[in-house]
Amino acid sequence: MPDAAVRQKELLRVQDLQGWYGESHVLHGMSFSVGEGEVVTLLGRNGVGKTTTLKAIQGILAQRRGSVAFEGRELIGLASNRIARLGVAYCPEERGIFASLNVEENLLLPPQVRPGGMSVEEIYTLFPNLAERRRSQGTKLSGGEQQMLAIGRILRTGARLLLLDEPTEGLAPVIVQQIGGVIRMLKRKGFTILLVEQNFRFAATVADRHYVVEHGQVIDEIANDRLDQNIGKLHEYLGV
Amino acid sequence: MLSFLPHIALPPTPALFAQLLIGLINGAFYAMLSLGLAVIFGMLNIINFTHGAQYMLGAFCAWLALNYLGIGYWPALILAPIVVAAAGMVLERLFLRHVYKLDHLYGLLLTFGLALIIEGLFRQYYGSSGQPYSIPDGLTGARNLGFMFLPNYRAWVIVASLAVCFGTWFLIERTRLGAYLRAATENPTLVQAFGINVPRMVTLTYGFGAGLAALAGVLAAPIYQVSPLMGSDIIVVVFAVVVIGGMGSIVGAVLSGFVLGLVEGLTKVFYPEASNTVIFVVMAVVLLVKPAGFFGRTA
């Protein structure tokens, strides 16, 4: 495990990110960074701004200020489709599977933005359940299968930075393990992942580092290999 | 056999087929127009009352092209939809995009107002009487089917309408572009976050719907007369067709278009007094029994 101090090349740098939903100010100066090939989590309680941070990075949150630099390029003023084209892909918490599309159409929906994405066959090998049900309506799948589809479809695009919002939420332990395995495999393949999680036990099995978020700000950073020493503090932050 | 219905006499067969043919022709136009409305409603969430005016514009484009530029029917069949689609996209950029987030009612009122302005301008310049537009050379005459005479132009309209309806259905339900459209209808934010320029897709969709209306207008020009009011005459019926088929459903729009054209034709045979109102009676019943229409999705 590399020490937090000697990080790989920085892929994403978020600085003083502010965000609003209408009148309500949700992000109060988020600052953190993710190195190339790292898996980094944002941990925190419900409603502290983790999902909003992902939406602000992807450009889905319209009212945002501050700086989001991806590969050194500023994203803050760009529309979400332009950000996607630069190689950032988003997997929403609610999974966003389209009911009017079958499994394969869902899988093929996000356009390829860069070379080097996984092929459809590779994705089916990774998630055999999806291959069996490729003609089924997307929303007829089980929760776990829908989550696999939601992750699978952004692997085709060639995006290097994946924003995963609570991919294990509401899933059975065996599926959670499977998704953990997929995230570790993606890391080995060189993907960079920013993961939003409430379940730090799961996060600990996949991540290099964790940022703790409270009131729309990063209040602490914990390397995964120092998790044991910090477990008391973490319990306090997360209120578990 | 029908003695329990003493006041209804069976009509002679040729009259029956003639009315069925008229019903089928009307149905072809209902289908094409409600199809465009369904496509636009699905993507833009707008009840496009300008659709009738765009149908009229299509017919007028063909008439103007013929009388001022000497451009005949076949080129007009391509050109008029392109011109009206382009005008529609300008309209979408200038006006419609401001009301997407509001209640349907605002889009309806806005497009209704635009339709009144467009129709008013044409009535000012061309009066409300119809202008004739003759059938293109290759399609004059009729063929004897044994039980009736079928005018060639009407046969062409039915075939063209079926082809347009099938083509549109195929485009939306079976192609990659159609998958983008269906997905963006469900969740435009996410589709855009995947890298697709959704606002541009919305503009093109409106242009496509307006172009479909114009194509129907050119096809209609030799059958009905070219008049500034031709759109407002048909659009009210088309809205009833859309309600019956189910708002936003492609298959529902096409099927109910043809079926209701035939129902109207049959009513003309059996009870002519009701032929102008039968579609609205059906609409009222459908609204009571199945408010989302036969193929509509309850949102």
Explained architecture:
Chain A has a single domain, classed as 3-Layer(aba) Sandwich (Rossmann fold). Helix content of chain A is 31%, strand content 28%. Chain A has nine helices and ten strands. In chain A, the strands form two sheets. In chain A, strands 6-7-8-3-9-10 form a six-stranded mixed beta sheet, with helices on both faces. A four-stranded antiparallel beta sheet of chain A has the order 2-1-4-5, with helices on one face. The radius of gyration of chain A is 17 Å and the shape is globular. Chain B has a domain of 174 residues. Chain B contains eleven helices and two strands. In chain B, helix 3 packs antiparallel against helix 8. Chain B is globular. Chain B starts with 12 loop residues before the first helix and ends in a 10-residue tail after the last helix.
Draw up the topology in text:
The complex is a heterodimer of chains A (240) and B (299).
Chain A: E1 10-21, E2 24-35, E3 39-43, H1 50-58, E4 63-70, E5 73-74, H2 80-85, E6 88-91, H3 103-108, H4 120-126, H5 128-132, H6 143-155, E7 161-165, H7 173-188, E8 192-197, H8 200-204, E9 209-214, E10 217-223, H9 231-238
Parallel strand pairs in A: 3-8, 3-9, 6-7, 7-8
Antiparallel strand pairs in A: 1-2, 1-4, 4-5, 9-10
Chain B: H1 13-44, H2 51-69, H3 73-94, H4 104-126, E1 142-144, E2 149-151, H5 152-174, H6 176-186, H7 188-193, H8 198-220, H9 230-245, H10 250-270, H11 278-289
Antiparallel strand pairs in B: 1-2
Helix pairs in contact in B: 1-5, 1-8, 1-9, 1-10, 2-3, 2-4, 2-8, 2-9, 3-8, 5-6, 9-10, 9-11
Structural class of chain A: alpha/beta
**Mean pLDDT across all amino acids of chain B:** 91
CATH superfamily of chain A: P-loop containing nucleotide triphosphate hydrolases
* Number of helical elements of chain A: 9
Counting DSSP H or I runs of 4 or more residues, the number of helices of chain B is: 11
- Please state the structural category of chain B: mainly alpha
Name the helix and strand elements of chain B from N-terminus to C-terminus, one letter apiece.
HHHHEEHHHHHHH
- Using only C-alpha atoms, the radius of gyration of chain B works out to 20 Å
